[in-house]
Amino acid sequence: MSHFVFGYRLPKVLSKPLFGDREKWGLVPVTNDTDWNEYWKINFSFYEESQKGTIGKIVNNSGYRVIQDIPLGGLKILEIGPGNIDHLQFWNEKPEMYTVVDIQEGMLERARKTLNKNDIRFDEIKIDRNQNKLPFDDNSFDLIMSFYSLEHIYPLDKYLEELNRVLRKNGRLIGAIPAEGGLAWGMGRYLTSRRWFLKNTTINPDKIICWQHPNFADHILSSLDEKFEKIKLAYWPMRVPIVDINLVVKFIYKKK
Q1: What is the pLDDT of residues 34-46, one digit of tens each?
Q2: Domain range spanning residue 108?
């Protein structure tokens, strides 16, 4: 299936404010860049500002709901980039073991508080941003969750191969991604988070978005289709399988 999107096929005068100046800045962060370093100093403030609003919660929850009908009892689960684990509200059972992985200690601390509060047995591991191999044996997990994280990881294909490696036979990969590269998502960001950056920081958002969201939804979905067996793909809010008119794509895949 083709996951065509119009977003980054727009003229530069339109694509730049919606999706960043990718032609100029590329997809790989310049680690000594002033804007990049400033972003990591304020990213927790940005995270809180973008998550606490009603619109942000509605959008995020639309993706989290993909987990509500999945039995989790007795499973060994891995989550990449857990954040506050806000999808826990949609769980129907507690897993046997919940392993969380992130590149930021602050995000792991948030996950730790949530898991302890809900009496969930867990393990946590901090990895480096450029770490190519996950620190797990082959076939370690029954289920992997990835909510709003695949858009951040570059290069994506090698990472998906790692997820495939640590997933058990017939294990599932469940999660959601923003409809990045789609017109609706680009316009939504232009009116919200881009304005926040311009109002509250001196950071160039047209630079940071290239490095924070290097993967567009069409590339993510095509890569998932290639490496896993698709069970479910659902679009929100329009429910029509067109990236440009939706904000979130939620998915369930199975290891081939």
Answers
A1: 999 999 998 877 7
A2: 36-203+213-254
Half-sphere exposure of 1 (CA within 13 A, CB side): 13
161 in a domain, yes or no? yes
CB-CB neighbours of 157 under 10 Å: 12
CA–CA distance, 228 with 18 (Å, rounded to integer):
30
Query: Of 56, 163, 154, nearest to 101 (Cα)?
Result: 163
Model-level pTM greater than 0.85?
yes
Domain count of the chain? 1
Record the tokens describing residue 38, joined without a space: 């400033």
- Give 46's contacts (C-beta < 8 A, 6+ positions apart): 39, 193, 196, 197
**CA-to-CA distance for 239 and 197, rounded, in angstroms?**
30
Q: What is the pLDDT of residues 193-224, one digit of tens each?
A: 999 999 999 999 999 999 999 999 999 999 99
